Amino acid sequence: MNSCSSLGIGLAGFGTVGSGVWNTLHRNGDLITGRTGGDVRLHVAKILVRDPAKARATTGDVPAELFTTDWNTLVADPAVDIVVELIGGTTDAFDIVAAALRAKKPVVTGNKALLAERGVELFALSREFDTPIHFEAAVAGGIPIIRTVQDSFIGNRILSFSGIINGTSNYILGRMTDAALTFEAALAEAQALGYAEADPALDVNGWDAAHKAILLATLAYGFPIDPKSIHVSGIEQVRPTDIHFAKSLGYVVKLLAVIREHPDGAVELRLQPSFIPKSHILASVHGVFNAVAVHGDAAGESLFYGRGAGQDPTASSAVADLVEAARSLRQTTGHRGFLPYRENGRILPVAETSTAYYVRFDVTDRPGVIAEVAKILADHRIGISGTHSPVNPDNPDAEFLDMVFLLHTCPFGKLQTALDAIEQLDCINSKPVVFRIETLA
Ligand code: NAP
Ligand code: HSE
Prior knowledge:
Alpha-Beta Plaits; binds NADP nicotinamide-adenine-dinucleotide phosphate; Dihydrodipicolinate Reductase, domain 2; 10-stranded mixed sheet; 13 helices; alpha/beta; 16 strands; Rossmann fold; binds L-homoserine; 24% strand; 3 domains
């Protein structure tokens, strides 16, 4: 076995994932050294936090002198060879990653918001300073999907991805379905388990999953994607009515990412709560688990499944990246980030994407309501495959009720125009809630 000196890690962030990285290295550091033939020895040289006095549940003692609250100190420390950014956000995190690249220190990050929002700037710095950014932990927690797309599918044209890529929202939908928990109670559980973002709004409004989808699409299609160009809606408006209705029709409700290349080269990319058939394999993805189905023109369909969030699974991906970063310091491995190679890429406007739909209206009940809504749908040539107005068993004479319509496949833009007109009816009390009905052939 070769022996070599240990590389120092600057661990920026010592929360759920940062302390998971510490624990994993503490537990498996010797294993890593053995498996790399003695090439990779790692130790934590500095830790950045906001509050060094905070109690931390870690394996083994963490020497107090490792902590700093000044990121410049961490990046500039000559004992730090590799910088691991796990603080989250897009401001301080950007400054840390940029400074590390300028100092030619490889970066490992789990920060999908940072890379989706500001990756173009950071990967340009990565190229300029010939220093890699590794980001396996940024997408789908413990599932090694980034390296799979970068390496294993390099010989494929990627026809599509579809998947469940936010553990928190999948956990919440599952607990609402299986344990009849309220949305708020289920979210509180996900936070306590370390699945949610520091700002959980990103989990429930769909944007955490959207950031991950942008990273996958960027790698697969080779052009930078402006987050403003994609359609995102989250699970905040999912109600037990929707879950029960889906179930009665043979579907389950999931926050689904759909990324698909169309024959003209346009890329469809959207995140929406969706009905998916109970018999489809993605319907069996429960709790914090994620799954990403990749369709390559050569490989055909592959499915990647595993824990999409949480301390140890995410640390598993970050530690794998650390080993790769360490190897890159020992020998040049080439640039590992996003390399733009397609000049004319474009995102398909969501108005041009087509599926069937489930739409829930909050209506004031009176004779003729269904007919008024149905007439506007017919005027817009949108077919109806079913409608239902569940009676509230606790209050059968309720003046307000949920009325749902199942609609045939049509472009989303056409549906939106019809819904804008329906919203003007005086019996409609709020914005209609739309779910896609996906066939996922
Ligand atoms: P977290 O538990 O909130 O931990 C954040 C850590 O960063 C804390 O130690 C905090 O210090 C420190 N910190 C935050 N802002 C700071 C600042 N401005 N200066 C210095 N220190 C700062 O977050 P997390 O769940 O570990 O997530 C970290 C990153 O990993 C995020 O980008 C997240 O999106 C990503 N990620 C998380 C998961 C997951 O399952 N949690 C999975 C994949 C990716 P204190 O401890 O003193 O408060
Ligand atoms: N908050 C994220 C999730 C963490 O729930 O999926 C993993 O990226």
